[in-house]
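This follows on from our talk about sequence and fold. I would like you to pick a protein and set down its sequence and fold. Go ahead and set the record down below:
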Amino acid sequence: MAGTMLEPRAPKSGAALNAAKWALPLLAAGARWLSSHPEVWEGVKEQAAKLQKASIDKPDGVLATVTVLREQVDYLAQSADDADEERRAKAWAKRLDSCEMAAHLLTAPGATRKDRRTLKKRVEELRSEIFAAYIDEMGEDAERSEGVSTDE
């Protein structure tokens, strides 16, 4: 390594890259809704900003992320079109409860890095699943409300 200069990273480049890893594929999947319904885009941007703000590397960040995801699950439960969507929303709510309890336990002395990594993975998976469903449901709701207003 003698003679090799390492350049320092920009302060938030890691956080931006991490957010791009989970948000961009979801936004691409929801592009059909986002292009035709700007109001959906505004809601999605707001939720993505809330999710990006909290770092899930620490229990406090997990708790903040769980709070945002809980808002999205509440929306999904309220706008569920069938029993399957209701069942998924209830299952996500239970998984969020589990993550919240785990995050509280990880604030206690003796919590290991392995436990924090495991929780981080669980929350990352939930974040991707719930946010994708949230984008899709917002788009479906926008389409439905557009269809109602044009039929009258």
Residues 4-11 have pLDDT under 50 and may be disordered. The radius of gyration is 18 Å. The helical segments are 13-29, 31-36, 38-53, 59-78, 83-106, 113-151. The CA atoms of residues 145 and 151 lie 10 Å apart.
